[in-house]
Design goal:
- By secondary structure, the chain is mostly helical.
- It contains three helices and no strands.
- The two termini are 27 Å apart.
Length: 67
């Protein structure tokens, strides 16, 4: 089973942070998909950085460098 980001916080992000008055369910779900894809790409790069450094633990610095 694949875990997905919850939609409600994404709807809040679009409203409160981006300033939308209303958000359709399909818009929130589309952003969830985009964020999951991008997050997976960043995480994959961060894991490679940690392994290259001889570590098993991914750090915040690895994430920042991966972006």
């Amino acid at each position: 089973m694949v875990e997905h980001l919850p939609v409600a916080p994404i709807e809040r992000l679009i409203k409160k942070n981006a300033g939308a008055e209303r958000v359709s369910a399909s818009a929130a779900e589309a952003l969830v998909e985009v964020l999951e894809e991008y997050g997976t790409e960043v995480a994959t790069r961060a894991v490679k950085l940690a392994k290259h450094a001889g570590r098993k633990t991914v750090t915040a610095e690895d994430i920042k460098l991966a972006v």
